[in-house]
Design a protein that fits this description.
Chain B: It holds the Pfam family Amidase. Chain B: Keywords: ATP-binding, Ligase, Nucleotide-binding, Protein biosynthesis, Transferase. Chain B: One of its GO terms (molecular function) is ATP binding. Chain B: Belongs to the amidase family. GatA subfamily. The structure holds 2 protein chains of 2 kinds. Chain A has 3 helices and 2 strands. Chain A is mainly α. Chain A has a domain of 39 residues: Histone, subunit A, CATH 1.10.20. In chain A, strands 1-2 form a two-stranded antiparallel sheet. In chain A, β1 and β2 form a beta hairpin. The termini of chain A are far apart. Chain B has 2 domains: 391 residues, Amidase signature (AS) enzymes (Alpha-Beta Complex); 82 residues, no CATH class. Chain B has 16 helices and 11 strands. In chain B, strands 1-3-2-4-6-5-10-11-9-7-8 form an 11-stranded mixed sheet, with helices on both faces. Chain B starts with 8 loop residues before the first helix and ends in a 22-residue tail after the last helix. Classes of the chains: A mainly alpha, B alpha/beta. At the A-B interface, α1 and α2 of A face α10, α11, α12, α13 and α14 of B.
Chain lengths: 105, 503
């Protein structure tokens, strides 16, 4: 069944991508064409076939040593904030997510 | 006087080692070539002249002090712009990351630099590697050096074009569904996608985590082998949990004959719809050359490969949606100003930061992962992935490598393929290798008589047999050197050769 513009608007909301009405129309056309391309997947009898989620299937997970490793893996705070579009002191700055308080810091 | 155009990476490193020229002179010649050629090819998003001269000066200082210098000493290298290098921006050719300054250096980049390479810049690409032409770059297109009215391929189009235009001797790219092998084919250079896990992906912006692999471009197979050594010799990277030990010397058996080894061909693929006659003819010549060198030709069957595109366009968008969720406009990247809520800020930052194709892929992934749809597509796609992997395993019981096209056609003109789903189908020969994690390499065969554009063969092999793959690639290159096609291997595209770059 084809995806409607409403369906696609719902997906855009879930994907957190705001689409204009024009984009929504084009995206709906695209989504239906793309999903059609995937049809061969649905024509298989896959009873009893194990899925492969990862190409190196028979290897086990690699674990790091359980030690604090600030020197290599953790960025210093100033470095981590270097690319933030909006920061405040040691923090990333975002619009309020709790209530509609106008209070700012 | 030498020109960088006629020197291989091995020759440059040897010249620096022997004192025939300095790494600084090589860096200056490369920057001079970029200066003279870049306006017509536009392979770079950022030229890192300061970093290049600094790295070269360090190489020269090391040599002067009698210290050991690396196997890539002085070799000019370009990096795809999804690879972090401190001192450069890493934009992924997206408005989202237009001003993003690298905060660390990717392991693959680090290892090339540790081997003595000189970083000349960051290469253009399709936005976040979504595309087959580099046209989805948010900043500018890249032209094919063999005909600037044609696309260079993609997504690593800038890396391939920089090497083909003689702006860099080596380049790194990444390949999720063909993004190294297809642009290598379009630009007439050697491009290798190693086995999944052979090269660390730490510091490379993720697209499809079960598919992505980093690999090198060069004009000669030997140069690609040299780069593979630099990328893998230090062993597995503890910073990438998928990284595997790959302790082989890629140069060691490079020139060994292929006599007695076997090459598989898939008759059903050679009849595929959309495969052009010129590519089919070139492949037949490559096969003849391998046969003349003593390789045995066997027919193999890959019955499920026809579903590889469908499986890929389920798996890759799902993984991309998951990976690109990090771009929320908070920690880095574009942030929409003046938003009242975090949800609005996120949705508008993503809407205005991402280009069209990046939005399409994420929308498709979001849909396929949604409840009720996952069971219909995602899970079955992973089962089909098992079938494709089994097909290859069965085929490799009767052959050492498989010979097939890299792309169904030579490079097309800008604007000739604009429909996104039609574009997806052009990955038909490369995508299955990512699905099962095996290695593949594209080797130039010369220019076709019809379009006068580079045409290439692809070799695929079992996982972690990349060295044997290069041995076959070298055998094809020998055939080309002896007059199959253009001759002389893969030269710098004639319209660009000699425009700066004198040493």
């Amino acid at each position: 069944m084809a995806l409607s513009q409403d369906d696609v608007a719902g997906i855009a909301d879930y994907a957190r991508i705001a689409l204009t009405p024009d984009e929504l129309e084009q995206m709906t056309t695209y989504m239906n064409e793309a999903v059609e391309l995937l049809e061969p997947i649905r024509e298989y009898d896959l009873e009893g076939v194990e899925p492969t989620f990862h190409p190196i299937g028979d290897l086990s997970n690699v674990m790091g040593a359980d030690v604090v490793d600030d020197s290599v893996r953790a960025l210093p705070i100033d470095r981590a904030l270097e690319n933030a579009p909006s920061a405040h002191g040691r923090y990333f700055r975002v619009p309020s997510i709790l209530g509609d308080s106008e209070e700012d810091f | 006087m030498a020109s960088l155009d006629s020197l291989s990476a091995a020759q440059i490193a040897a010249g620096v080692r022997n004192g025939d020229f300095t790494a600084t002179e090589v860096a200056q010649a490369a920057l001079d070539a970029i200066d003279g050629r870049e306006k017509d090819v536009q392979a770079f998003l950022q030229v890192s002249a300061d970093l290049a001269l600094k790295a070269a000066a360090q190489t020269d200082a090391r040599r002067a002090a009698g210290e050991k210098i690396g196997p890539l000493a002085g070799v000019p290298v370009a990096f795809k712009d999804n690879m972090h290098l401190v001192g450069t921006r890493t934009t992924c050719a997206s408005r989202m990351l237009e001003n993003y300054e690298s905060v660390f250096t990717a392991t693959c980049v680090r290892r090339m630099l540790d081997a003595g390479a000189t970083p000349v810049g960051k290469a253009n690409m399709d936005e976040f590697a979504f595309g087959s032409t580099t046209e989805s770059s948010a900043f500018h297109r890249t032209n094919n050096p063999w005909d600037t009215s044609r696309v260079p391929g993609g997504s690593s189009g800038g890396s391939a074009a920089a090497v083909a235009a003689g702006e860099a001797t080596l380049a790194l790219g990444s390949d999720t569904g063909g993004s190294i092998r297809q642009p290598a084919s379009f630009c007439g250079v050697v491009g290798m996608k190693p086995t999944y896990g052979a090269v660390s992906r730490y510091g490379v912006v993720a697209f499809g985590s079960s598919l992505d692999q980093v690999g090198p471009f060069g004009r000669r197979v030997e140069d690609v082998a040299l780069a593979m050594n630099a990328l893998t010799a230090p062993g597995r990277d503890p910073l990438d949990s998928t990284s595997q030990d790959c302790a082989v010397d890629f140069l060691e058996h490079l020139d060994d004959p292929v006599e007695g080894l076997s090459v598989g061909v898939v008759p059903q693929l050679m009849e595929a719809k959309g495969l052009s006659q010129e590519v089919r003819d070139a492949l037949a010549a490559a096969l003849d050359s391998l046969r003349d060198q003593g390789a045995r030709v066997v027919e193999v069957d890959l019955p499920n490969i026809a579903s590889a595109i469908a499986a890929y366009y389920v798996i890759a968008p799902c993984e991309a949606f998951s990976n690109l969720a990090r771009f929320d406009g908070v920690r880095y990247g574009y942030q929409e100003p003046d938003c009242a809520t975090l949800a609005q800020q996120t949705s508008l930052s993503r809407a205005h930061g991402f280009g069209e194709e990046a939005k399409r892929r994420q929308m498709l992934g979001a849909y396929l992962l949604s409840s009720g749809v996952y069971e219909k597509y995602y899970y079955p796609a992973q089962q089909v992935r098992t079938l494709i992997t089994q097909d290859y395993a069965r085929a490799y019981q009767s052959c050492d490598v498989i010979l097939l096209p890299s792309a169904p056609t030579t490079a097309w003109r800008f604007g000739d393929v604009s429909d996104p789903t039609q574009m997806y189908a052009s990955d038909m020969f490369t995508i299955s290798n990512n699905i099962c994690g095996n290695g593949g390499v594209s080797v130039p065969l010369g220019l076709s008589a019809q379009t006068h554009m580079p045409v290439s063969a692809q070799l695929q092999g079992p996982a972690f047999s990349d060295r044997r793959l290069l041995r076959f690639a070298r055998a094809i290159e020998r055939g080309v050197d002896q007059g199959l096609g253009l001759g002389g291997g893969a030269p710098v595209a004639p319209a660009f050769a000699g425009r700066g770059g004198d040493l």
